[in-house]
Amino acid sequence: MISAASPVRPGAISLCMVVKNEERNLARCLDCVCGRAAEFLIVDTGSTDATPRIAAQYGAEVIPFDFTTADFAAARNCAIDRARGRWILVLDADETLVRESLKLIDAITAFDENEGCYLERRNHSSDSSRPFTDYVVRLFPNRPNYRYRGRVHETVDASILSGGGRLRKTNIRIDHNFSSDQEVRRRKNRWYIEILTEEIAANPSDDSRLDFLAAEYHQLEMFDEATAVAERIVCARPRDPPGPFICRRLSLAVQARLASGTNRFPLGTETPARLC
Question: Whole-angstrom Cα distance, residue 272 to residue 242?
Fold first, then answer.
């Protein structure tokens, strides 16, 4: 365990998390980085279970956060603002860092490189035998201008690039065990669509939100809506390959669904966001 009051050694890693009601997952997540992260900064958005107590047992600084207006970027940045380590490692409570990756993290953080690192995330669900892989930037230098953007599907990539940093793909791997409850996932999809729609209305010039909106519609099997959003992406970024790729992928997916005579895709089918 670590102490929230302990001094953070030079070059150390600060683990930054956002949690709510994660008493079943949190200890397993924290165990995988004990001895590597010099401090745990855990933003709690309103837990009603034992999550804060478990975090405190690991010496974490637990930071209550008003989540009346959902904004995951603001919550993540709240933790990063308090970080004292030279590197930031971001995990969710239902993720665990693969032990074999610890040496890779040590090698990267031993140097003062200005780069964000893509980690390989293997996503597992108990109702599917086919995990899928995506890549997320979760390890990056602690710099004042490196902050998350986006109320949902928040990313730090753009701020790293605009701040003069680079992005690199690594072999660091995390395992993600997400909910197997289909209705829970569908409710989350609908909630994200609502928030993304609000974000797009508030800032129509930010077409990056459209990519995530198309993916959410796709996961809900709302293919007409997903295709309409994909067409907006093509109009916004006619020279950007992902736009046409999304449209083509959606078209092929719908054709395959119709040809098979089914009305839905199996959960775990790749979405445009995962493919791009």
Answer: 9
